[in-house]
Design a protein that fits this description.
The protein is α+β, with helices and mostly antiparallel strands. The protein has three domains: about 55 residues; about 45 residues; about 55 residues, Head domain of nucleotide exchange factor GrpE (Nucleotide Exchange Factor Grpe, Chain A, domain 2, Roll). The protein is about 70% helix and about 15% strand. It contains three helices and six strands, in the order H-H-H-E-E-E-E-E-E. Strand 4 and strand 5 form a beta hairpin. The longest helix has about 100 residues. The termini are far apart.
């Protein structure tokens, strides 16, 4: 009987001890949760405050940079407009100069030909009144010599064709005639119309008669 009472007292003591320990653990847990919640709220508030301050500082830096970019863009646009206008003026000026050049390109050449025309005018004026054929022939020879010199000064040179081998790069055959001499076969035996070089370029082929 005494043993049963003793065992029951020990079991009651153990239960009371467990209840006390569970109550302390619960209180400690609630306390920790309250502390943790408070620290988290405070930390969040601090982070939000720091973020707002950072954004404010960044905004203060960005605005001057944007202003500088806009000013640079305006400057580049102004330069582009100026260059575009200058190029348009240059294009119009060169086009006008090109037109004038093509229009008056032969001015110096024609000025050199005009004196020869004056000589022909004088020869024609004396032709009806003059009876001296020798003098007239001499005058025509002089004019011919002047004109020939004029052509040479401007790079015009006659193609020497008579008695030369027929050359398709220089000659244009207008006829073929039989020849007795063998050395004249395939050669130019007559020049119908003279051909000319301009420097090294053929500007007119010689019209020739070829022997066969």
């Amino acid at each position: 009987m005494k043993k049963k009472l003793k065992d029951q007292e020990e079991e009651n003591h153990i239960n009371i001890t467990k209840q006390i320990e569970n109550k302390e653990i619960t209180n400690n847990t609630d306390h920790l949760n309250e502390e943790g919640t408070g620290d988290s709220s405070a930390g969040s508030a601090d982070i939000a405050s720091e973020t707002m301050e950072g954004e404010s500082i960044a905004s203060d830096k960005v605005i001057p940079e944007v202003q500088a970019v806009l000013e640079k863009l305006a400057e580049m646009q102004d330069k582009y407009i100026r260059l575009s206008a200058e190029f348009d003026n240059y294009r119009k000026r060169t086009l006008r100069e090109k037109i004038d050049m093509s229009k008056y390109a032969n001015e110096n050449l024609l000025l050199a030909v005009i004196p020869l025309m004056d000589d022909f005018d004088r020869a024609l004026q004396h032709m009806d009144a003059s009876t001296d054929c020798v003098a007239m022939k001499d005058g025509i020879d002089i004019i011919y010599g002047k004109f020939n010199d004029f052509l040479k000064q401007n790079g015009i040179k006659e193609i020497e064709s008579l008695n030369s081998n027929f050359n398709v790069d220089l000659h244009e055959a207008v006829a073929k005639v039989p020849v007795d001499e063998d050395d004249k076969k395939g050669k130019v035996v007559d020049v119908v119309l003279k051909g000319y070089y301009l420097q090294d370029k053929v500007i007119r082929f010689s019209k020739v008669v070829v022997g066969e």
